[in-house]
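FAQ: What does the model actually see?

It sees only this:
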Amino acid sequence: MQKSASAQTVKSNARKAQTDPYAMTDVLEPSKLKTALRAIAKKHAGSPDALRRDVLAHLKQVNAQGRERAYEILKENGGGLECARRISWLQDQILIALDTLVTQSIYPETRNEFTITAVGGYGRGTLAPGSDIDLLFLINGADREETLKSIEYVLYMLWDMGLKVGHATRSVAECIKLSKSDMTIRTSILEMRYIAGRKELSDTLAHRFDDEIVASSAPEFIAAKLAERDQRHQKSFDTRYLVVPNVKEGKGGLRDLNTLFWIAKYFYRVRDTAQLVDLGVLSRQELKLFLRAEDFLWAVRCHLHFITGKAEERLSFDIQREIAEALGYQDRPGLSAVERFMKHYFLVAKDVGDLTRIFCSDLEEQQAKAAPTLGQAVLSKFTKRQRKIPGSLEFVSDSGRIALAEPDVFKKDPVAIIRFFYVAVINDLEFHPDALKVVTRSLSLINAELRENDEANRLFLSILTARNNPALYLRRMNEAGVLGRFLPEFGRIVSMMQFNMYHHFTVDEHLIRAVDVLSELDNAGGESEMHPLAARLISSVEERTVLYVAVLLHDIAKGRKEDHSIAGARLARKICPRLGLTVKQTELVSWLIEYHLLMSMTSQTRDLNDRKTVVDFADKVQSLDRLNMLLILTVCDIRAVGPDVWNGWKGQLLRTLYYETEILLSGGFSAVSRKARTQHAIEQLDDALVGMGDNERHKYANLHYQNYMLSVPLEDQVRHARFIREADKDRKLFATMVRTNTFHDITEITLLAPDHPRLLSIIAGACAATGANIADAQIFTTTDGRALDTILLNRAFDDDADELRRANTIGKLIEDVLTGRKHLNDLIAARSRERRTVRPFSVPTHVSVSNKLSNIFTVIEIECLDRTGLLADVTQTLSELSLDIQTARITTFGEKVIDSFYITDLVGAKITNENRRAAIVERMKAVLDDKGDAYRKGMPQGMLLPAEAGSESDRGGNKA
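And it is asked to produce this:
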């Protein structure tokens, strides 16, 4: 009887393989695979090692050919879900063949004693190229040694093939017992699928699981899965708009779709997503949306695994371009192919969010219909009944969430769509998912007439400028599709990513986060530890509405061919009157958008101690009102870029620029003069140096010039003072101090040394010799003639201890070079020229040499792609060109570098000769394009001082 049942199972598997639409019989015929393995078993009947070797070699070949064929088909037709099912089919055939080999030829006594089932994603019949193969081996209650050996044979063969296998061997009773207490095991069994062996065991488990687990625990399971989802989302900042998303685990990714299906299978007892249409949970259009989203995400994931050759789930910058090309995206005006691909990705992630909301709405409705117990009924009468909202007949409050009083509210009056969000804002209500479902299905009602409606625009402005968390309501409007329909200009940037390392979020998410920062400042009561000046100024801003509109729209023109600041200002002149702003307000919004980058770029790339910098900036700003609003907008913009972009140094630079400009714009009068601010900063430092005597405190508090006191945060001033004090105690001419910041992904090295014209070049060269990349530099001179330079390096290690060891090594190397113990040129020559990998980004190289940006110095500004050793190459080249660096501003925006060098010739004069300026530009461009060595070799002898020729004099100077 057992023999007959086994034969029947084999025939059933054979028929299934032949009729499976995802079968790749052109590269793998299941019956031929079994025959081949049987022949190998027969050939090596007395030699188990030879048998294993030949079986393994054959299966490896079959697996490689099958996966290669699946990839070819993916590239031909782009079907992601089909690709995952083909790889799953391939894995099934390997397991079926292995089971047949083991139970017929190797351990025949174990035939019909165990079952191989797929669980997890593999249980759904989908498998990504690099995914784990999750298996559940079902056995009878008694663990016979031969049975376990059979299972081990299968497992070791899979591992030897190089596959990652997740596995468990249990009886049916154990599975049921563990499912009751372990939600992960319960979820895996929910998706169990029979592959090979004794089918009776998997059937028994399926029936018992349905009857004993699923039937009585739906609410518990749903709550656990939604909690898991929320926890996952927190890891990605609770947004689906991260520019480096996780395709599997991120918000709007495949795991969210999986969660929906798990819940559907558990609660609605369906086996196929299409059945949700028959149940009325999803419309046919929404089912198409589900299937399209699933197919697209699977296509991206399969390409990601095939291209990287591993189970990579993060869609990093270096791979986005390749996948965009593989999926056939082309460049368009204003948007590159990769940006178009990523916009599609984020739109799909948004669709997943819509489906989740619709699904949860129906789920809640179905649970509410479930017959409650008497106690629950009494309780729900008081806690879950709908309440009227004062002043509104269209909407009601349902457990603190706004809901529709009637299902056709929006059809009767489309303005009610905007009013819906307004009523939620003023009553501080969350949203009932059922109401949001109706909103999403009513988007066609938002037409040109509604956009021009005065009441609708007034309500929208009230939402935007609300005191209680306007960003939350704007985000809900955006996720429901309302914001992009009501403001079509905003709709163009929904889900748009910027292909660079500086911005962490899509453009629409960045703008909403900027409004969130503005609201935070607005509600700070004039006090903010992170933004003290902005928080104080915002209360004096008369045009509060202008500020909110400017913050929401400042990047509205991203993705267009022209400069987004200029195009954005033009769009603002069109949008603002529609929103009800006056001509004066419209012009102010337009100006703020056109110059929204001015303050951050000036503060970070210009010498704020050069009066010409401040005069030029003040000429563009022209009024204190504009200055106040521009500072606040700048803070909101930088803070909203990403979690690790803002820091105290940038805040201090903005405050310094603000105070310097305030003096000019107020006719020489400022609430706080530069001299008074400097004296106040000295007094603060003096008070903060606890543990020192009066004379010491006074000495170290008065050791710095105005520019240091006004641009360096107090906590850093204290650290520097203690550092200099220790160096003085130990009579050290050269000293370094290091610290690292995991959150900002930065390591900081502070150097104290006698000032020297080539000091920055030496520091940069030492960093380059160790492969360290400089992200920023802060350069100061003390009143006693010493340099106090702080170099910010990109971290190389995750572990703080490892990173600090690296930083100390670099600091020690800088000291050794400065003291002459080691020679920089020897170090750079000894380090083999590292092979440069192709970066995924391209930044146009730009060099300008200007005498108009400063009255005293010539300013060389460079803009290019960042790379390790860049600053060393640049500073060495400036030295070779006989130029003295008086001060420098080193700034990195993701992968892009914008550095400014304030220089003179060797006698302290500006570079006025046009031919010499042109030669500087040409030489610098060669260095920035990483062609400096070739350029140097091509120059006539004696025209430039080669590094090698100058090494002896440099060394002598260092020794002196």
